[in-house]
Amino acid sequence: MKGKRYYMKNIKRKLWILAIILCGYMGFGIKAYAADEQWFAQQVEKLAKEGNVYIVAQDGTGDFLTIQEGVDAVNSGDTLIICPGVYEENVEIMAKTVNLLGVDRDSCILQYDTVNYGKVPLTVAAGQISNITIRGYKNADKGMYLPVLAMQEEVFDEDSQELLRQSAYSGYAVHVDQNYLYGKELSFEKCRIESYNSYCMGIGSRGESTITVTECELLAAGDGGCIYLHDVGTLDVGGSSTMIFRNSMLQSSLCPYIMTIHALHTENQMYLTFQNVKVYGVAYEDNGGYSFTNMNTGLGVEPQMMHVLSNEETVAYMERNKQAVPLLQEGITYIATQKGVKEIVPKKRYVFNVYNADGMPGDGWCGLSNTWLTPDSFGNTLQDMNAIYQPSITGQEPVLADVLPYNNHND
């Protein structure tokens, strides 16, 4: 009987929290449609059945002032509701499941300078991340990449050679690479993930796990594309894994690779599903920025699927403010990087960078040795993402959308 009373008390508290959040949702002046309010209420109700619900608010009206404070304090399976604000944090959810639910994606922003590989906005392995913007930005005042040896010695078990290798890289916006992922699920829903340095998401899969990305925008405006995916280096936590993308947008406005996939062990089978995924990418006339070790054997992007920029348009594009807002026409925008060329002749390009540990093309998806496209993949911009051939897009419409004013992420 005591347990039942505690359960009812906890449910009442969660409903009270929900009422406060919904009132605050409107009080912040956020333009919310009924469908969004209904979705938010459904999410809180669902998560409240799985664990306790707490509030993170920078004005002191919640349970915690910072996201990391909440992550450290709550139990596995609990949820943190994130109130509007810009949270300048390096959030690490290590070896437990904590759900993050933003009140409004556009005003709930988690950001951090990702010049350092080991310090990124969000490190996570399991749970649900919903309705927030996650931004890995580049602070020009800090110059080039910083060494991470001293910082990582207490965090990772890697040997010194791995630490040295990592020190040459900047960080992802979201990093997923923990053994805790084994046998668990991780989902991202209604999120915007921006990166001005490396990839938007860096993912090391684990066996018997599923990662789902639904109704999200991945906006890459740095040296990496949208996703870097690899299987685990040890078979102890390896096995079959699944990654699903639904109704999402992938844009890489600088790096010519939308995704980079590394296959380390053929025993680790990775299954990819793409459903209604829109791609906005770039291709270059010269070979700069392309990997000479790419083992991709897929269809690639044929010239007729490309939007071609003139020399003048190329100059305007390369000199724009490097914000990660949607800029490109759906498909691949072909950029003429050679000055003085009167006629641009597009070449077939690959936007997936594929690498197998044995150095040879495999018989899996796009030449991978351990990765496969599921038969329920459909409705995507790129042919390689569709299980069945679909008519290709063409570049007959204007190439560039209107460039939005630059929104300084340090404000």
What are the main properties of this structure?
411 residues, 9-stranded parallel beta sheet, 6 helices, 25 strands, 27% strand, disordered N terminus
Question: What would your notes on this structure say?
Answer:
This protein is of the alpha/beta class and 411 residues long. It has one domain. Helices cover 16% and strands 27% of the residues. The chain contains six helices and 25 strands. The protein has helices spanning 2-27, 34-48, 67-73, 149-152, 160-166, 311-318, and strands at residues 53-56, 79-82, 85-88, 91-92, 99-102, 108-113, 122-123, 127-130, 133-137, 174-176, 185-189, 192-195, 201-204, 209-214, 217-220, 227-230, 241-246, 249-252, 259-263, 270-275, 278-284, 306-308, 331-335, 352-356, 371-373. A nine-stranded parallel beta sheet has the order 1-2-5-8-11-14-17-20-25. A nine-stranded parallel beta sheet has the order 3-6-9-12-15-18-21-23-22, with no helix packed on it. Helix 1 (2-27) packs antiparallel against helix 2 (34-48). The radius of gyration is 22 Å and the shape is globular. Mean pLDDT is 82; it is low at 1-9, 26-34, 141-164 and 392-411.
Order of strands across the main sheet: 1-2-5-8-11-14-17-20-25
Instruction: Please report the total strand number as a whole number.
Output: 25
The computed structural class is: alpha/beta
Range of strand content: 25-35%
- Mean pLDDT, rounded to whole units? 82
Work out the count of structural domains. Answer: 1
Q: How much helical structure, as a percent, in the residues? A: 10-25%
The N- to C-terminal Cα distance equals 52 Å
Q: Helix tally?
A: 6
Q: From the alpha-carbon coordinates, what is the Rg to the nearest angstrom?
A: 22 Å
